[in-house]
Each structure stands twice: as structure tokens, then as C-alpha cells.
Amino acid sequence: MNLKLGFVIFLVIFSIKFFDATIAQSGILKNLTYGYILIAVLISLPYFFKFKGGFVLPIQLITSAIIFSIFMAQITWGQELSYAPTTLPYLIWPIFFYLLNSKISIRNIETIVLVYGTLYIILFLFQFTHSNIVYFGFHEEFKEDRGIIRVNFPGGGVFFLSCFIAINKVTTTAAKYKYLWFTYAIIGIVIVVLQVTRQTIFVMLLLYLIHFLRSVKPKYKIAVVLLFVVAGYAFISMETKLSNGLRDQQKEDASAGKDYIRIKAADYFLTQFTPNLASKIFGNGFANDTSRYGKAVLALGDSYGYFLSDVGLVEVYISFGIFSILGYLLIFIKSFTITIPAAYYYLKYYLWMIMATSLTSDSLINYGFLITTIFVLYIYQRLYMLSVQNSSS
């Protein structure tokens, strides 16, 4: 096996912290995780200014914002620099430049994602069927929520990207493999439904619909839309604990209006949390749970239900400032403006999904998604550089 490829394969499992396995949350596995990520970042930094165009500037902006925010946490909140390793899992963006310099093949990246995506499904099903013991995540126990024992499994980036690769291959590979990829895509939907996150279910179904509408003949488009609508209506209308739980939760949130807890949390963090102008520009930094700053953030969750991870894009701004928001905005715009072959539309679907769910989830900066976000941008960049090269030759 190529040494660089092997390095990237292991980087995935370390960057998602072994799917937040409880056995990896302390001791030697935790130390190995931080050590491996540190090495990955250090060997990537020499290539930080080597490339131009495409997604290079947005990633430089986000990386610089995260590094600077470490010092803002000290200046604003007195969080000592000794807590800086807390930020390491969120600082893996420079690996994008390592990948560009190493020229890992796109097919290898796809294979890595599909293998880890399959592993995610297997481990989720294991945890779901053994929910009496927490093997993955930071819960003390899994509780019934929305009509089901809710296991919101960590490390979702590889799972979602693998599902989008699967639907792309349904419409671009040889006929004999289409059913295999379609089965994988359907399993993906089932897993998402079992995790009962409403926005994710809706966005994923919408992207599936967009993909299959794009690739079918006009006379079949209406049939595809009707199939999705009927299936969705049938599920919601079913008198099961799961469908009733989702429906009741939607009614409860809708009736809350401006008192909806996420709206109140976002308002507080945007208007009252940040203590000075400098932090409003450059961010407050990422809070370590054991520091004074971290304890203040945890107290907001315990006392008022205000969790930064629930307010997505607001968390990015509060933690890393305006320039990180600018970086993400550029990524989102470029996902529309940079053209890629149809065989790689899964890149767009992944970026659109994390952007569409960014107001109510932490998928933009959650370390369970970051490595796949970097993979997506790397493949996108390779395709962009190839198109520029072809147009100039």
C-alpha cells in the first residue's frame, strides 16, 4: 500500500475519534488521536500557500480564523494556551493542501469513504440494537425520543457522503451494479429516519429527489415526484410510535414560535454572549470544558438549554469569527459556480446538505464531518484544476 494513502486511511478514523467510541475518550487512544492529528496538521502546513484558485482562499480563511481564535480565547476569556489542543480536531483544514500535494487519486478517496460509510452503518445498527449500553457517543444513556430509542450516531460525515456517492453511482455505473448502489442508498434513508432528525430527513430526501429528477427522462419525472410524495405521506400518516413522535415534535416546535429554544439560544449568543468588539470580529475561540470559559458555556446549556451545537452557523461565528463565516460563504457560492462532471455531483449534494442543515446543527465544524468536508473540497479542487488546465491548453 502507498504510504501516503495508508496515512490518509488512518487519518479518517483518528479525525472522527473512532466514532466517539467510549474506549477512545481517554487513555492511550485519546493521546494517539491528538498526536496523529497534530502530525497531520504539521506536515500539511508547508503547502498552505502553494496552491491558488478554487477553494484555496476559503480554506485559508477558515484555518487562519481558527488559529487566531485560540489567542482570542486567552485574551477574552482567560483560557490558557495549554488548553489549545482542544481545538486540534477542528483544525484539520490544512490537510486539504497535503492531499493536493500528494495527489491521492479520487477513486481511492471514494473507496475510503464507502468503506467507512459501511462501517458507520454496521456500528450504528450494533449500537441501536444494544442501546442499553453506550458504546459510542457522550450520552450517559440512550432515551426514548420521538417514539424511538434515539441513537444519534457520531461521525456522520462518512455516512452521508457515502450515501450521495451511492445515488450518483446508481445513475452513472453499469446496469449490473445499479441495484447494489440503490440498496445502499435506501439503507441510508432508513438509518436517517431511525435517527429521527427531521431537518436531516427532509434535506436528504430532497437531495435524493433532485438527483433522480435530474437523471430521468421527462415522462418519468412526475412519477418520481409522486412516488416520493406518496411515500412521505404514507409514513407520516401511519399510526406508529415513530411517525407520531416526529409529527408531535413538529407541532410542538411550530407552536413555540419565537420562544423556540434554538431561536432564543441564537439570539442570546449573538446579542449578549460575546463581551467585546475584538471577539465579535475574530471570535471567542473554542471552549475547553474544564476551563472557566468552558464552564460558562456548559452552564448556559444546563441552566437555560442554550447549546452552541444547536445553533450551527452561529456557533461558527461565535467560536471563530467573521472570517470563518466568509470562508464558508465562499465555499457555498463556489459549490454552485464551479462546474463538475455529472459523475461527481455527490460533491455538491454533500456541501448543500451541510449548508442546508447549518442553522440547527454543528455539521459545519463538527469533527465527525470535517474530514469528509475536506475530501469533498479536495476532489472538487482537483476537478477545478483539471478544467483550468484543459481550457488553457
List the helices and strands and how they pair.
Blueprint: H1 3-15, H2 17-20, H3 27-44, H4 56-77, H5 95-102, H6 106-129, E1 144-145, E2 148-149, H7 156-170, H8 175-194, H9 198-215, H10 218-237, H11 241-256, H12 261-273, H13 277-282, H14 292-304, H15 313-320, H16 322-337, H17 346-356, H18 367-392
Antiparallel strand pairs: 1-2
Helix pairs in contact: 3-5, 4-16, 5-18, 6-7, 7-8, 7-17, 7-18, 9-10, 15-16, 16-17
Write up what this structure looks like.
This protein is mainly alpha-helical and 393 residues long. 69% of the residues lie in helices and 1% in strands. The chain has 18 helices and two strands. The chain has helices at residues 3-15, 17-20, 27-44, 56-77, 95-102, 106-129, 156-170, 175-194, 198-215, 218-237, 241-256, 261-273, 277-282, 292-304, 313-320, 322-337, 346-356, 367-392, and strands spanning 144-145, 148-149. Strands 1-2 form a two-stranded antiparallel ribbon. Strand 1 and strand 2 form a beta hairpin. The longest helix has 26 residues, at 367-392. The chain crosses the membrane at residues 31-49, 56-77, 83-100, 112-135, 147-167, 179-208, 220-238, 316-344, 364-380. Keywords: Membrane, Transmembrane, Transmembrane helix.
Q: State the distance separating the first and last CA atoms.
A: 34 Å
- Major β-sheet, in short? 2 strands, antiparallel
Report helical residue fraction: 55-70%
The DSSP helix count reads 18
Question: Which outline best applies?
Answer: globular
Radius of gyration: 21 Å
Low-confidence stretches: none
Q: Tell me how many strands there are.
A: 2
- Helix/strand order: HHHHHHEEHHHHHHHHHHHH
Overall mean confidence score, pLDDT: 90
The portion of residues forming beta strands comes to: under 5%
**What structural class do you assign from the helix and strand content?**
mainly alpha
Spatial order of the strands in the main sheet? 1-2
